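May I ask you to review the protein record following this short note?
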Amino acid sequence: MSEPIVSVLITSYNRAKYIEFAIESVLKQTFQDFEIVISDNCSTDNTMEILKKYTDNPKIRIYQTKENIGQFPNRNYAASLAKGKYLKYVDSDDYIYPTGLEVLVNMMESFPEAGWGLCSLGQVKEKPYPILLSPHEAYKHNFFGPGLFHKAPLSSIIKKLVFEEVRGFKPGKMVGDYEMWLRLGQTYPVLLMPDGIVWYREHEGQEFVFVKDYLSIYQKIKIFYLTHPACPLNKKEIEMVFKNENATYKTGLIKSLITFNKPKMLENYHYLKLNKNPIHTNYPVH
């Protein structure tokens, strides 16, 4: 049998309530040249019991880690088992619309120079999607435009060879996808694709509810890549990013002083301190 075009990667941890919904959304795709690789991260609920009903499906391969290795190492593990040309994450609590894979694959195949792609993006006035951006254009789109690198793995599609070249996600909670996009964006053209391809579920059990606890780490990663020798932006553009950010934080600091909002006061002060004379340092450990 020939290898599938797409490997749909579903990583799970205690997602018994949602995982069947996610799997069924993939199985109902109009584009059927795919495999599903499921890697359960040592769930303690009945997730594995639900997965047993899919063991006879030739499109699905199910694995379980021996211990909880964390979100992004589990994403890397699932990717290492993939056989497809493209990697498509569909998290165990999310959903992909029936034409999702068809749209993503057709657009990526139309732009073979793209190393990766991001969807779930709002309309831009210049032209319709898909839009191919060079590394320099992608960084400008993120730091001077509507933003780009904030998207979750659900919105991504990545060539497996590219994923292997950059050695996948770095470990750590919350920030692994943001760091990955900044890293990919340094080197590989990215294809922008529209909204309406995937659906992101919001619920109390997901890590994103703790995002405020990681804002400082996000900022350190941003500084790391903006001051990295391989940053696609030129010196003036990098200086402008920090100038714009500092203006925002100064305004926020003044407002927090007026309202005596101590947490916001400390937050804005901390970011201003981080942005003062930023220099390239080792990757921030988290």
